[in-house]
Amino acid sequence: MSLLELENVTLKFGGVTAVNKVSFSVEEGEVFALVGPNGAGKSTVFNLISRFYDPFEGDIRFDGQTILNRQPHVIARLGIARTFQNIELFDQATVMQNLLVGRHRHRRSNMWTELAFTPFVRAEERRHREAIEKAIDFLDLQAYRDKYIAGLPYGVRKVVEMGRALAIEPRLLLLDEPASGLSVEETQDVAFWVEDMKKQMGITVLMVEHDMHLVASVSDRVLALADGKMLALGTPQEVQNDPRVIEAYIGVSDENEKVLA
Amino acid sequence: MRTVFKTSYDADINLFRHGAQFGWYALLLALALLLPLGVSTFAIGEMTNLLIWAIACMGLMVLVGQTGQASLGHAAFLAVGCYANVLLQTELGLPFIVAFPLAGLIAGVAGAVIAMPMTRLHGIYLAIGTLAIAILTDDFIVVAAPLTNGVMGLFAPDIDIFGIGFNRYANPDRLYYLVLGITLLVVLLYRNLQRSPLGRSFAAIRDSEISAQAMGVNVARTKAIAFGISAGITGLGGALMGHFAGIFNNETFNIIISIQLLLAIVIGGLGTIHGAFFGAAVVALLPQAISMSRDFLGQFLGGGSIAIPGLEAALFGAILIGFILFEPSGIYGRWVKIRTYFELFPFYRKDMFRRQKSYLKTERMR
Q1: d(CA B316, CA A186)
Q2: Are B168 and B48 in contact (CB under 8 A)?
Q3: CA–CA–CA angle B94, B99, B103 (5° rounding)
Q4: Contact check, Cβ <8 Å, B13/A77
Q5: Which one of A239, B62, B78, B313 is at 20 to 30 Å from A112 when CA atoms are compared?
Q6: Are B362 and A86 within 8 A, CB to CB?
Q7: Pick from B88, B262, B202, B302: which is nearest to A97 by CA?
Q8: Taking the domain B28-300+308-344, which CATH number applies?
Q9: Is A256 exposed, middle or buried (0-12, 13-18, 19+ CB in 10 A)?
Q10: Size of interface A-B (CB pairs under 8 A)
Q11: B353: helix, coil or strand?
């Protein structure tokens, strides 16, 4: 059984079909990449899995169970974490506090015990801090632990967002353009991290990415989308060489076009 | 500048960052405890009033500063707390020590219930919605005259705890100590909130609802809890206001009080406990400062102590505009800058606290 399955998922905004009968499944322990030109519907697929949108038709299953009857905040509790394309961190909080919000899924105390700050809450806090320390170590964020997000450079914010998603201790991690706006070295780091998440932490990764070098180096399978439709599904090499994918990215090169020109 | 070497997780969890910080607050508390020895009865009354306002400000701060939800209706929760406290004592004969926390609880539940439809609103719409609540409460007090005595108002009985009486005029020092104790308790609750998961989920909702949701925070529920806790603390402030004023009616908690509360926390500094106290000081002491300065100036300029209508409101507005233009982080923000200047002397740079340009945000989908 696949970890995540999308079956014939369609989403319409008014007259525009953003996602058109998309079906794919992500196996446990693989790195799966979504590629495609701008407006292909990649981020929309993420928002569908996060339950920010309701699909027009089709089904989305996680671990064999449909998630369409779940509310958005329950998704994290199921073990699906995500990052955002345009960085959605909590700006007026420190890196550590951001990561601690990621631990919300593991909260066992309630309002009353927290207001009284019982020894149990303190023990829980220690446990959460120990857990986020692992994410901080993994992503080399030690130097930024107590810094406010509002003062951090873009590249670091990207990493913090990944750290916050890891603090959830997810089974499935959705990375929305993890390398956009990063330097070559930083992109290289992202490649190593994704590799380690898969191999050391056993996290299944579904990512949207434009950097084809990164996609080719880390992903097991790639799905190419254009205009909300599925173009090609296969290994990175297969998809990169697929004529339909080349057409979607750089246009057609057939004889008719030349005649018209 | 003090660098704290953290050797355990508790360093981040404890109430105070380091021993010196604890020392300063202990000193402040000692000063507050010794205050009645050194100042006049009138001044103690004013300090009591300041502390009561600080409690109310902390209540609103939980909602506005911590959770980022605007409210122009908090006078309603002051009223709920005040009426509940007095009615529980006079109608049901409960002692203050039971009626007071119950009044806070009632105000809190009222806040949470009202929040349920309100949590779908954002920004200006939420402000207008809460404004309506404040106006409705005013009318409700008049309509429910058999219980609330309508526009005639109610008398607050003297506070009596195990035979010890607390009255503003008979024993102002005792009332001051009682209010100080309650203030400390509220500060402790607020600090506990800030360092626990619930407080962090409030801040998460303030900074990015969509990402809070992706982290597993139930946004609607958490907002309702924020409203509840905020209204509860405000209700406690209202109950004390009733006892302090002695007599109150529907006009005591009118819309102006709501606006003053909001102004206080903006002037004080949003999102901090210090801000609530600074703001309360401005609101509680400004009328006295105006009348004193008027008497003082009258000696030189003539005209005596003739009241100038609207002077207080005008000064308030001027102060608020000044803060929004020149110091949006409020009195506390200014204080942090001054402190940093001396801590780092002579290395302070002018743009150290300049706001960073924020990066593009994902479409909020609201």
Answers
A1: 51
A2: yes
A3: 145
A4: no
A5: B78
A6: yes
A7: B202
A8: 1.10.3470
A9: exposed
A10: 128
A11: coil
Interface test with A, best of B119, B215, B222 (most A CBs within 10 A): B215
* CATH value of A1-79+170-261 in 3.30.428.10, 3.30.750.24, 3.40.50.300, 3.50.50.60: 3.40.50.300
> B195 and A151 in contact by Cβ < 8 A?
no
One DSSP character per residue, A62-107 reads: ETTEE-TTS-HHHHHHHTEEE--TT----TTSBHHHHHHHHGGGG-
| Residue B206 forms contact with A (CB below 8 Å) | yes
Strand order from edge to edge, sheet including A204-208: A80-82, A172-176, A204-208, A31-35, A221-226, A229-234
Give B-chain residues touching A130 at CB under 8 angstroms: 9
Q: Which residues of A touch B210 (CB under 8 A)?
A: 52, 84, 88
A-chain CB neighbours of B356 within 8 Å are 150-151
pLDDT digits (tens, 9 = 90+) for B48-89: 999 999 999 999 999 999 999 989 999 999 999 999 999 999
Residue A256 pLDDT exceeds 90:
no
* pLDDT, average across residues A224-245: 90
- Enter the tokens of residue B138: 């005013």
CB B66 within 8 A of CB B272: no
* Cis upstream peptide for B157 (omega within 30°): no
Cβ contact B137:B75 at 8 Å? yes
Give which of B194, B196, B164, B198 is closest to B181, Cα–Cα: B164
What spatial distance separates the first Cα and last Cα of chain B, rounded to whole Å? 43
Nearest chain B residue (CA) to A106 = B216
Question: Is residue A132 within 8 Å of residue A165, measured between CB atoms?
Answer: no
Ranges of chain B whose pLDDT falls below 70: 1, 301-308, 354-366
Nearest to A19 by CA among A67, A56, A69: A56
* Interval A186-227: pLDDT, tens: 999 999 999 999 999 999 999 999 888 999 999 999 999 998
Domain(s) labelled CATH 3.40.50.300 in chain A stretch across: 1-79+170-261
B340 touches chain A (CB under 8 A): no
A154-184 pLDDT tens trace: 999 999 999 999 999 999 999 999 998 899 9
Find where tokens 């692992």 sit: A134
Q: State the Cα–Cα distance between residues B44 and B101, nearest whole angstrom.
A: 24
Chain A within 8 Å of B11 (Cβ-Cβ)? no
CB–CB contact B365 A101 (8 Å):
no
| Interacting residues of A232 by C-beta distance below 8 A, sequence separation 6+ | A222, A223, A224, A238, A239, A242, A244, A245
The per-residue DSSP string of chain A comes to --SEEEEEEEEEETTEEEEEEEEEEE-TT-EEEEE-STTSSHHHHHHHHTTSS--SEEEEEETTEE-TTS-HHHHHHHTEEE--TT----TTSBHHHHHHHHGGGG----HHHHHHT-HHHHHHHHHHHHHHHHHHHHTT-GGGTT-BGGGS-HHHHHHHHHHHHHHT--SEEEEESTTTT--HHHHHHHHHHHHHHHHTS--EEEEE-S-HHHHHHH-SEEEEEETTEEEEEE-HHHHHH-HHHHHHHH----HHHHHH-
CA atoms of A105 and B215, how far apart (whole Å) = 7
